[in-house]
């Protein structure tokens, strides 16, 4: 029995919830996954996973063993990466989760630049505007934009402040009531980003602060670039990161609304499992992002 492979198989079965999913993730046959699990349980003389035809259940001993296995495998991985780093040669596999829209506009370019600097690093990028589950996806680091990060066992590092702007197309504004204060937003069609953590828009001016609950138009979308495009086509007003609309504001295709009021700023974070905290590869990638984004 290849002990490291068997432990890796066991870990991914627990994290993904099925033998087939683990087989797909590890690019093994389901028979090979089953064989590794059977040999591991036989060597330990302890059942780790109880299986039925429809579902599997991790035993109490299996859960305890899983925690120790994760520590052991991560220690081995970090040790290998540290050795590579100390030899001035960063290598290995790096799986990154990132928002689709932000990746297209900014992040993917930086990932490609990182890849040029470290050609021995194999990179897989999962682009999805929904936040991925780092553990189940086996990701090393995820890029997330939010006003705050929820408490979790994950670690994070702030990369960039994301200023946002309220805007609309000139054609929309010509046929709509004027927007002179945050309360006027309620009388307008608002383009809603369906993955937002809240359905309220917070605007501030000096010591004043107002929370506005926008009235959704007949267009709701889960992608920021699609929302900006709808705004450009006059479908309603939008609250979006400035990075997506900077050029459109400069050339007049979109107009900034309530410029004296500041929307709540979001931030961009690099989030990673605590087990990757000592990974030289993950730290090098995050340091690289910080360095590049400071120049923006």
UniProtKB/TrEMBL annotation:
Residue ranges occupied by any HTH lysR-type domain in the UniProt entry: 1-59
Gene Ontology MF terms: DNA-binding transcription factor activity; sequence-specific DNA binding
**Known InterPro entries for this protein?**
LysR-type_TF_proteobact-type (IPR058163), LysR_HTH_N (IPR000847), LysR_subst-bd (IPR005119), WH-like_DNA-bd_sf (IPR036388), WH_DNA-bd_sf (IPR036390)
Q: Which GO terms describe its biological process?
A: DNA-templated transcription
Query: Which one Pfam family would you cite for this protein?
Result: HTH_1
Cross-referenced SUPFAM superfamilies, in alphabetical order?
Answer: Periplasmic binding protein-like II, Winged helix' DNA-binding domain
Q: Which UniProt keywords apply?
A: DNA-binding, Transcription, Transcription regulation
Q: Which PROSITE patterns match?
A: HTH_LYSR
What family is this?
Belongs to the LysR transcriptional regulatory family.
**PANTHER family the UniProt entry points to:** HTH-TYPE TRANSCRIPTIONAL ACTIVATOR TTDR-RELATED, HTH-TYPE TRANSCRIPTIONAL REGULATOR
User: What is this protein's name?
Assistant: DNA-binding transcriptional regulator, LysR family
Q: Which organism is it from?
A: Vibrio hangzhouensis
């Amino acid at each position: 029995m290849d002990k490291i492979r068997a432990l890796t198989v066991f870990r991914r079965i627990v994290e993904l919830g099925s033998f087939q999913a683990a087989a797909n993730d590890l690019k093994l046959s389901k028979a090979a996954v089953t064989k590794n699990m059977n040999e591991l349980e036989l060597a330990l003389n302890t059942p780790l996973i109880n299986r039925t035809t429809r579902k599997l259940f991790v035993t109490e001993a299996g859960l305890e063993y899983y925690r120790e296995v994760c520590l052991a495998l991560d220690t081995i991985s970090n040790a290998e990466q540290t050795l590579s780093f100390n030899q001035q040669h960063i290598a290995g596999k790096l799986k990154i989760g990132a928002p689709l829209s932000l990746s297209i506009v900014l992040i993917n370019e930086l990932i490609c630049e990182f890849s040029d600097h470290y050609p021995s690093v194999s990179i897989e990028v999962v682009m999805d505007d929904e936040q991925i589950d780092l553990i189940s996806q086996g990701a090393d680091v995820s890029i997330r934009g939010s006003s705050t990060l929820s408490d979790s066992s994950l670690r994070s590092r702030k990369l960039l402040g994301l200023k946002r702007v309220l805007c609309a197309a000139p054609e929309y504004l010509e046929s709509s009531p004027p927007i002179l204060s945050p309360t006027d937003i309620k009388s307008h069609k608002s383009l809603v980003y369906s993955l937002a953590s809240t359905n309220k828009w917070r605007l501030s001016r000096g010591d004043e602060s107002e929370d506005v609950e926008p009235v959704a138009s007949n267009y709701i979308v889960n992608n920021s670039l699609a929302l900006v495009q709808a705004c450009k086509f006059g479908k309603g007003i939008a609250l979006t990161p400035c990075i997506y609309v900077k050029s459109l504001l400069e050339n007049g295709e979109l107009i900034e609304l309530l410029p004296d009021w500041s929307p709540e700023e979001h931030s961009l974070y690099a989030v990673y499992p605590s087990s990757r905290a000592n990974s030289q590869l993950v730290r090098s990638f995050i340091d690289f992002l910080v360095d590049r984004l400071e120049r923006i």
